[in-house]
Amino acid sequence: MLRRLCLRRLPSLVLALALSGTACAAEVLRVLSWPGYADADVVQAFEARTGARVEVTLVDSDETLWQKVTAHDAADYDVFAVNTAELQRYIDRGLVVPIDPAALPNLAAQLPRFRDPTTLPGTTRDDRLFAIPYAYAEMGLIYDRRQFEAPPQSIAALWDARLRGKVLIYNSGSHNFSLAAQMLGKGSPFHLDAADWAPAVEHLVELRRNLLTFYVQPEESARLFLSRGAALMFANYGTQQLQLLRAAGADVGYAIPREGALAWLDCWVVTRGARNRALALAWIDHLLGTGPAHVLDARHGLNNTRDPAPHQAETDRLVWLEPVEDVERRNLLWERILSGDRATRVLAP
Amino acid sequence: MRFGIAARLGIVLALSGMLSAGVTAVQAQRASETLLVDSARTELLTSTRVLSRRITQVREDISRTLLALARHPAALAALDSDDPQAATQLATLFALPMEANRAYFQIRLIDAADNGLERVRIDRDDDTLVRVGGDALQEKGHYPYVFDTLALAPGEVYMSRVGINRERGSHAALGQPAVQLATPVVDAEGKPRGVIVGSVDLNGVFALLAADLPADFRLYLANSAGDFLIHPDPARTFGFDKGRRVRLQDEFPAVQAVIEGRAGESMIDSDAGEHAPTPLLAAFIAARAQLRTDEGAFILGLARPRATVLAELDPLRDIMLQIVIGMCLTGILLAAILARAITHPIEVLGAAVQNFSGNGQAPALPVERQDEIGALARRFAELRTQIGQQMAELEHRRSELEHLARHDALTGLPNRALFDDRMAVALAAARREQGRLALLFVDVDQFKPINDRLGHVVGDRVLEAVATRIRQCIRESDTAARIGGDEFVVLLPGIASAEDARRVADKIRAAIDRPFTIDGDELAVSVSMGLAHYPDDGADATTLARHADTAMYRDKAEGKARRHA
User: Can you give the residue range of the structural domain that contains A89?
Assistant: First the structure.
């Protein structure tokens, strides 16, 4: 997932940390984590509290995570972090087990939107809870306050002809077709029906014509936004881009469109091969506590699930990422659109 | 011992020869390596600068071509009226530079209106040029090479960032590293109406430029952030396009200063990390394009394996090796000659010592030499002469003593001991040959009165004179000896008959009967004689002696009677 880029500055080598001085007879918890999710002080606090020893293995891509978990049918790790879109294939393969919410007292302290599994479709399957939300980031809209009288309310602002040549979007087939689906008023932006493709492509060709250009890296987006006098940007990296622009002196605002901002959500899950599920759940509950939550936002700039995010209202709608219906088709068509083909040619076989 | 000295000397000389040759060779090798590495670095830096200038020239050539196309009336005509004739003319003009220069992927005329729709477009497709038209023409207004170029003044040139071309339908350019150069097309009012864009094949340009670099040169190109654009391992290029960073400063940490702009160029010995097994010499320079671009500086570098640089030393090393071997062999030869020069005189002296006591011919000593060996030889020669003289004297004394032991001191005749030896020998010979021999006893008569009367001195003189006369009367093979005070004996071997012996006896008697003159005084002396014959009178010395003695006493008695008579 591209949102990982903001964390890749951390050492990305897989490393096992043996941080505890407890007796060798101590229980061992095998954690597979992204950089920033299991910092040494967080691990030490857990070890001190439980007397267990934690072995942390870091991963830096969805593919590495998948390889490690599937290597021995999830027998090598007890607990790991994964986003809701990726999680689905782990559930499909039966690599993770349902979680009893009663074993996690800290769940009560989570924000309401994370306490209700029905609003988090990716975390449950057949009414069984598989994943505990832990960290997230949404993809809002960044706008130049000087060019907007009021914050943009809708993603339709990206298509606003008055902003022609002043719009920046992220170069991603999946996300951009999701934006088009939101414009089409689809219930789920991740599922385009056969009849939806043509209008979606029309929308994206129109969006292209309204663009200044597209970006890949957050730094690149900030540079383009400032140097070319852009007005509006779809912020794939969310508040990270906001911070970059503000640091560069831009007078920019951040808005969550009423259609909902696409958002990724990382959750903790327990593997089928977990040796001690109670200990795995204790680890998850530990991470939901105030200390680890604070480490997440203060140290790594990610939203935790306890505290309201600084640029969001409680009522802002977040659309948690889900696997799209056909990622290859989305990418192929997006490449054609990006290359400048007109709608008829984009949809050609 | 001789081998020992020669061998040791040889080893020492050969070793010192090898050592000096070796040290010289190693020092020369080191000095040459340093020189060679320094000059290789300088050469790399110079080559990098030259390459950078040539890249600039290529870019300027392309820029001039694009500017010429942008100023051509057909460009504006094709934008103005969508005039098919003008478009066709422009397409022909686009094909000319593309045919001449394979570095062009595409040349396009893009309209500022209609969302940046392409108006005229020639693509390279394998070996042919394709004119793209109709529905296949795309809208490019959202690409920086369009909107940034439209913002330029006439005559200015834009250069895009270097990246992998993802524009679908771009034929040969698709998926290839490319850079876009573009310039605006302006109308009479100076209003930008479109852009001429040349898409340039990065690898094609560099393949051409690097073609005449030596085979072991490695070419690197990175953007201002250090991302590799060209690398000997193509898999490391455009890492950012695949969501990862593969950067120059990670492979060559020393280039950091160039990337950060703290230095314009950098010469590097890269021998750590992945270059530890095959260290590289490298030179990097920052090249900044003097035109409108977001790219910033490019970092251009050339590297060579240190080993291939040092391979130029191989002939020198071979020569060195030959010199070292030559010097070693010369050392051994010299050592052998020197050892021989030293050991030969020692050998001569040794032989001289060995032959000292024997009668062998003593070798000539190297006394003429003016060195220590000459001095030793001279002292030895002196010693040899001294010892020789002493030996000669000793020998003389010894033979004198031997003579004395077997001769009578007064008369010089053999004494009894010698006489007994000769008697035994003569008897043995006679027995073997069945010959004869005679034994004659001679006794001086009245000798005691002579002694008493005239003194011992005269007596001795008389005995001497008698001995002389006896000696004069016998053959050389006969033996006369003095066996007592006034007693003589004569051995006559090999006589034919008793008569022969009688004649000798008579001859002796007659000789002695002649008066002796001693100190002017005449003196008469007589002798008594007795003969014994072998084998007639006895078969052994004792019997013969007794017989001769008896005969002599008989003669003495008869003589006394004769005198009294």
Answer: 2-130+262-312
- Nearest-angstrom CA–CA distance, B297 and A80: 43
- Residue B281's pLDDT is 92
Residue A286 has pLDDT above 90, yes or no: yes
- Average of per-residue pLDDT across A317-335: 92
Question: What confidence category does residue A216 fall into, taking pLDDT thresholds of 50, 70 and 90?
Answer: confident
A115 with A49, same domain: the answer is: yes
Q: Which residues of A touch B140 (CB under 8 A)?
A: 340
Confidence at residue B565, expressed as pLDDT on a 0 to 100 scale: 62
Q: Domain B37-309 belongs to what architecture? A: 2-Layer Sandwich (3.30)
Q: CATH assignment of B408-564?
A: 3.30.70.270
pLDDT reported for residue B362: 65
pLDDT of residue A264 exceeding 70, the answer is yes
**pLDDT at residue number B116:** 95
What CA–CA distances, in Å, run from B232 to B178, B217, B218, B531?
17, 10, 6, 136
Q: Would A317 be classed as within a structural domain?
A: no
Fill in the DSSP letter of residue A237.
T
Distance CA A94, CA A73 (A): 9
pLDDT in tens, A138-174: 999 999 999 999 999 999 999 999 999 999 999 989 9
Alpha helices in B72-143 (DSSP H): 73-80, 84-100
pLDDT at A92 > cutoff 90: yes
**CATH code of A32's domain:** 3.40.190.10
Cβ-Cβ contacts under 8 Å, A2 against chain B:
243
Do you find a cis peptide bond into B154, omega within 30 degrees of 0? no
Q: Say if the Cβ atoms of B139 and A340 lie within 8 Å.
A: yes
Across the interface, do A336 and B170 touch by the CB < 8 Å criterion? no
- Nearest-Cα distance to chain B for A332, in Å, is 10
Known catalytic residue at B148: no
CA neighbor of B287 nearest in space, from B556, B500, B542, B45: B45
Which parts of chain B sit beneath pLDDT 50? 1-2
Number of domains within chain A: 2
The answer to whether residue A113 is domain-embedded is yes
Chain B interface disruption, residue of A210, A342, A346, A347, most B CBs within 10 A? A342
Per-residue HEC secondary structure of B235-288 comes to HHCCHHHHCCCCEHHHHCHHHHHHHCCCCCEEEEEECCHHHCCCCEEEEEEEEE
Task: Give yes or no for residue A15 having a pLDDT over 80.
Answer: no
| B224/B249 Cα distance (integer angstroms) | 11
Q: Hey, are the CB atoms on B169 and A341 less than 8 Å from each other?
A: yes
pLDDT band at residue A9, thresholds of 50, 70 and 90?
A: very low
Closest to B487 (Cα-Cα) out of B457, B471, B514, B466: B466
Task: Indicate if the pLDDT at residue A10 is higher than 60.
Answer: no
Chain A positions in Cβ-Cβ contact with residue B118 (cut-off 8 Å): 340
Does residue A228 belong to the interface with chain B, where contact is any CB pair within 8 Å?
Answer: yes
pTM for the whole thing?
0.68
Question: How far away is chain A from the Cα of B140, in angstroms, using its nearest Cα?
Answer: 5
pLDDT on residue B6: 67
If phi > 0 it is left, if psi is from -120 to 50 it is alpha, else beta; for residue A73 that is left
Q: Distance, in angstroms, between A211 CA and closest chain B CA?
A: 6
Question: Do A155 and A282 sit in the same domain of this protein?
Answer: no
User: What would the two tokens of residue B306 be?
Assistant: 């240190």
Predicted confidence band of residue A24 (pLDDT cuts 50, 70, 90): very low
Question: Where are the domains positioned within chain B?
Answer: 37-309, 364-405, 408-564
**Does A166 contact chain B (CB < 8 Å)?**
no
Is A340–B170 a contact, with Cβ atoms under 8 angstroms apart? no
Same domain, A120 and A201: no
